[in-house]
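re: that complex we talked abt at group meeting.

here r the seqs, copy pasted straight from the sheet so there may be weird spacing, ignore it
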Amino acid sequence: MKIEKIQVLRGPNIWSIRRPNLIQMRLDLEEIEHLPTNKIPGFRERLERLIPSLITHRCSEGVEGGFFQRVEMGTWMGHVIEHIALEIQTVAGMDTGFGRTRETKTPGVYNVVFSYLEENSGVYAAEQSVEIARCLIENIDYDIDACIQNLREIRERHRLGPSTGSIVEEAVSRRIPWIRLGRNSLVQLGYGVNQQRFQATITGNTSSIAVEIACNKELTKRMLDQAAIPVPSGDLVSDEEGLRTVIEKIGYPIVLKPLDGNHGKGSSINVNDFETALIGLQHAQNFSQNVIVERYITGYDFRILVINHKMVAAARRVPAHVIGDGKLDIQELIDKENLNPLRGYGHEKVLTEITVDKDTNELLEKLHYTLKSVPKNGEIVYLKSTANLSTGGTSIDVTDMVHPENVTMAERVSRIIGLDVCGIDIMAENLTQPLKESGGAILEVNAAPGFRMHLAPSEGLPRNVAAPVVDMLYPPGKPAKIPIIAVTGTNGKTTTTRLIAHIVKNNGYRVGFTTSDGIYIQNVMLTKGDTTGPISAEFVLKDPTVEFAVLETARGGILRSGLGFKSCDIGVLTNIKEDHLGMNDIHNLRDLTKVKQVVMDSVKKDGWSVMNADDEYSMRLMPELESRVALFSLDEENPHMKKYAKEGKISCVYEEGFITIKKGDWKIRIIKATHVPITMEAKAKFMIANVLAASLSAYLHGFAIDDIANSLRTFIPSPALTPGRLNIFKFKKFQVLIDFAHNPAGYEAIEEYLKNVEATKKIGIISGVGDRRDEDIRQCGKIAGRMFDYIIIRNEKHLRGRTEDEINELIITGMQQAGKNVSYEIIPKEIEALKHAMSMAEEGTFITALSDVVTNAIDLVQEYQNRELLEEG
Ligand code: ATP
Ligand code: ATP
Ligand code: MG
Ligand code: MG
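got the structure back, here u go
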């Protein structure tokens, strides 16, 4: 067996729209292809022994143990590997359950697809599941425990922390999209101008000055004290003299802690004599010169969480500890406690396992204990100095028991410090009495308080404290998303995308759009290149200035890692034609339709799918669409259009020379096609089709007819606005057309256009694209042979795995099938070919350059135009 490729899918994809997070592993079974599980002696038994929990997999049998039955009867190894990959993730605390295994067109080669919760763990699970299968087949030992532990460690290294994770989960439940920014816990909610950011529990609105105040414990205490909120009395000290003065004022017992410490580092608690206080001072000064000396308050550690200045939860926190039974030693008691099913590795369960570290050893030392000491029956031994859950502490929810006066106090504290998400640490006997009566005090105020103790307390009610954060970031009525129009199809995507973006911009929106030429915000190209994949879509959706996104969404990106957005408002499918067939397991138009369908399936149910009624495969897709559908067509008599009109539905049609919206039989004429420059005086039918698609989308979004018409009128097919899309350059004697057509449908579109062009001679410059199928290259040659009187064959910059001769041979064969003996020559370099064509041009010649590096071709032709002007001048 050989893993050929592992892909991480992160957005809606060909396997699933609702489960964006999938691993897709291309696996060559090699010799194992001929060994189903029932032909491998002992396979089932070994599998059951290694991963007994697979018993829960019902598989197609639908009963517990169903999967084992399938293995017994005989199933393919790819299928087994899929189940193993899912189960080892489940055992490692990442319960996820979607899987598909399908043979590709290459016999013995499978796509094994399964869901993941954390992508690095998913990739590891893919690799290990194959290794596990290999060991099971060959009857070799495999250390499954080590594998599971590795999975856990990878997960903890990469996944979002529990607080961040809870806010993301809450957002997802409200259909608010999110994007992780960078590797840490910085997260964007929403899109474009409507985005909000947060990191752990600091939001984009958390005041920086408030965080600074909270981090300065002394300043915090002073501000609270001045507002009549109880804090431990004390002062800052930096030497023995100062220490003595403060103690004289506040008396024993005291606490010493570094001014800006955390996690209890350098603190001495409950100090009752000057000698120990002095040692404590030195100890704390290892962390900061200035040391807080304050009254020791008796009681328990409480945390009150205030969000948006409202108390949302309160918890009592207890540091990790064990309770003696007079028999077991401390290490044994820890081991026993770690067997508690509530405890898990890292953040996977309610509680974290207790580990022994420096802090534990120091605490035990103070008690003159070691791990071998046996505490008395009922004796509580604390193993950590702070009550953090991440070090094994526990928490008890007490939200409903907080005295109203304490609630008011906590909400005042959050305003005084100015924190939108505020964790208040209180030491008190209880919170049921006002602090002033119980003698409790506020020890400190935390910015970025952890949520886990409230989300999953070890006792008491769990509280969804993520919800108020999302409420605060997105109060009712505040949108999280921006409108998204996604454009897919074989031909015309870029042109349609640009047209829609132009209309959107003219309607006063700041538009971000992606195309196969580059990413644009308004009129500025920000990156150049084929930017039609998910990363480019995210680029636009991450931009905080963008109000409206129009995204050209091509096949390559969908297959590589899925869509870069979860859903869109309008999806446009221009057409489905032969191109790129034979690549990425896409062999025919049916396969290709499945890929384009991903975009249409991502359209919201109350959104619109804009479909081409003249395109056969688009129409075959129609019954599967869940959103509303609107059609466009060049032909009013198209049967789908007639049916639509009868049903009173919305469409857009080219009729009597007009671009017209139809609602049932009512017609709203937008503009005469001849007034739309991009249609080349209505001679370029395919451009009219793009105009129909764009106008219909704009209309469905709600733009006014007049505004659409004005935009269409001002969209000039200039090399600057649409480079390489039907750019015509006029010379005194001849004309040059530069276009990007590169597949049979594109060639046919040009052929159709040239029929309307008057010329004494039509010269074509063409080439074959290396990674396309033989028949597609031949077909292009054939169409060229039909539409040109003379042909110059050039070569592409990238041959994509073929030789020039091979490609030229196919083109020439195609040309010869055109039924007319067109003469040709071969000039490999595009620029040379173009120069030659212009040098041989006569009065009335029309040169069509189907270009590879469009910008170079345009530069050359414009240079020639300038030269002609100078000579005239
Ligand atoms: P963390 O980062 O975990 O919040 P920290 O270094 O900020 O810790 P504090 O929160 O000030 O330190 O104190 C840690 C713990 O020490 C408190 O939770 C409490 O149990 C104890 N403590 C601190 N000050 C006092 C005090 N004045 N009286 C009683 N106990 C105290
Ligand atoms: P790519 O897949 O290369 O990004 P695209 O789908 O973005 O292509 P455009 O860049 O808009 O398509 O157009 C490329 C070429 O395809 C045009 O220059 C033209 O020759 C042809 N074309 C454009 N629109 C259509 C259409 N609606 N039908 C057929 N051919 C078209
Ligand atoms: Mg603290
Ligand atoms: Mg394109």
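couple things i noticed - Residues 119-138 form the longest helix (20 residues). Residues 657 and 672 are 6 Å apart (CA to CA).
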